[in-house]
């Protein structure tokens, strides 16, 4: 198990995740832009890291900055960014390759899905294939996409 989670989200979503992480007895680490420095999710977290300017592309969506924040704080897990912030993986083989590149475990979700429905954790390539199929089934027909995203 892990003892700290970097919450790579903002606003109300981040607040809910932070509360849940803390209720689990884990350390919650927020990341934020300059514009969000005084928002409740930042002050409610156990630690917070400034990512950069207000523009999401230069802060929240800059994967290298989020990873650097996780490393600098010693975060042992990262809660993924909300839906729609990364491009979906085109083929399952690409998803497995990407997951192996960034390292397991990874979060799997249906591209275009929301509210956490169909999200799951994959710990290896076989499990990633199973999770991707389960993710698609969980959100069909509301989200008729066969594409998945991994984090």
From TrEMBL:
Nucleotide-binding among keywords: yes
MF terms (GO), sorted A to Z: ATP binding; biotin carboxylase activity; metal ion binding
Domain Biotin carboxylation, chain residue ranges per copy: 1-151
Enzyme class: ligase
EC numbers for this chain: 6.3.4.14
InterPro entries with a match to the protein in the record: ATP-grasp, ATP_grasp_subdomain_1, BC-like_N, Biotin_carboxylase_complex, Biotin_carboxylation_dom, PreATP-grasp_dom_sf
Pfam families named in the record: Biotin_carb_N
PROSITE patterns given in the database record: ATP_GRASP, BC
Residues of the ATP-grasp domain: 67-124
Keywords: ATP-binding, Biotin, Ligase, Nucleotide-binding
PANTHER family: CARBOXYLASE:PYRUVATE/ACETYL-COA/PROPIONYL-COA CARBOXYLASE, METHYLCROTONOYL-COA CARBOXYLASE SUBUNIT ALPHA, MITOCHONDRIAL-RELATED
Protein name: biotin carboxylase
Organism listed in the record: Planotetraspora thailandica
